[in-house]
Amino acid sequence: MNSPPWLWHKTPLRGAKEKGGEITKNLRIETNRLIITVFDETMAEILHRNSLDEDVQSYVPDEVFGTIEKAEKALEWFIGSYGSRKLLVYPILLKNGENIGYVQAVPFEEAWEIGYHIAKPHTGYGYATEAVQAFLPVIMDYLNISEIIGECHKDNLASRAVLEKCGFLLVKQGTQRRYIFCAAHAGIE
Ligand SMILES: CC(C)(COP(=O)(O)OP(=O)(O)OC[C@H]1O[C@@H](n2cnc3c(N)ncnc32)[C@H](O)[C@@H]1OP(=O)(O)O)[C@@H](O)C(=O)NCCC(=O)NCCS
């Protein structure tokens, strides 16, 4: 296939200038219906419960936290990574405080990758799209990157739809029936 001009592997994706980590430690993004903020230790049970969805088991099995203890360990890791340029994972809350999933940026080869999960009962309402659209500019600015990857299994049509609605374009089909998408965020040097 023809590659878009901003093909992800042709540009240095890791930011050259470091930014302070404060924003990632105190993140709070408010959209019309959602709040994206930092994890705290009280969220282990909901993280565990949300992760048991069939779609998570099929498409992102390494994001299944099968016990509360596993979720606690993951939370420790997530919280400990705030302020860094490693894994950056944030819960997505409804305005009533209900925790319905998460959105994340993780290192991917020489680049960064976006990830997201919305708990099954809350899917189909546009929440993933709303969260990713709000999260991208903030996290890309922090990481000082102008492009970011989205990866999904070929059969994960909902995830693919989220990426497309957020302006990602298909770059290539990777191994193991995975599609790799890329988004450029205008306005970042
Ligand atoms: C993928 C996921 C985040 C979507 O969350 P969501 O809040 O329902 O997403 P949105 O409502 O913003 O958008 C979903 C889109 O997919 C579409 N969709 C859902 N199921 C679909 C299917 N089987 N076929 C085609 N399109 C589908 C919806 O119609 C919607 O598009 P529309 O707004 O144009 O109608 C959620 O299903 C999930 O967490 N899945 C498990 C984890 C996962 O796969 N994460 C991504 C890893 S790559």
User: What is the distance, rounded to the nearest whole angstrom, between the alpha carbons of the first and last residues?
Assistant: 27 Å
Total helical segments: 6
What are the bound molecules? coenzyme A
CATH homologous superfamily caption of the domain at 16-144: Gcn5-related N-acetyltransferase (GNAT)
CATH topology of the domain at 16-144: Aminopeptidase
- Overall average residue pLDDT: 88
Low-confidence stretches: 1-18
Number of distinct beta strands: 8
Backbone shape: globular
- Main sheet characteristics: 8 strands, mixed
Structure class? alpha+beta
Secondary-structure arrangement, i.e. CATH architecture of the domain at 16-144: 3-Layer(aba) Sandwich
Radius of gyration: 16 Å
CATH class of the domain at 16-144: Alpha Beta
Strands of the widest sheet, in order across it, are: 1-2-3-4-5-6-8-7
Oligomer: single chain
- Share of residues in helices: 25-40%
Strand content: 25-35%
Description:
This protein has 189 residues and is α+β, with helices and mostly antiparallel strands. The chain has a domain at 16-144: 3-Layer(aba) Sandwich (Aminopeptidase), CATH 3.40.630. Helices cover 30% and strands 27% of the residues. The protein contains 6 helices and 8 strands; from the N terminus they run αββαααβββαβαββ. The chain has helices at residues 22-25, 44-50, 54-59, 68-81, 127-143, 157-165, and strands at residues 28-30, 34-37, 88-94, 99-108, 111-118, 147-153, 169-173, 178-184. It has an 8-stranded mixed sheet with strand order 1-2-3-4-5-6-8-7, sandwiched between helices. Helix 2 crosses helix 4 (68-81). The longest helix has 17 residues, at 127-143. The chain is globular and about 40 Å long. The two termini are 27 Å apart. Mean pLDDT is 88; it is low at 1-18. The structure holds coenzyme A. The site of coenzyme A (COA) has 23 residues, from helix 3, strand 5, helix 5 and helix 6.
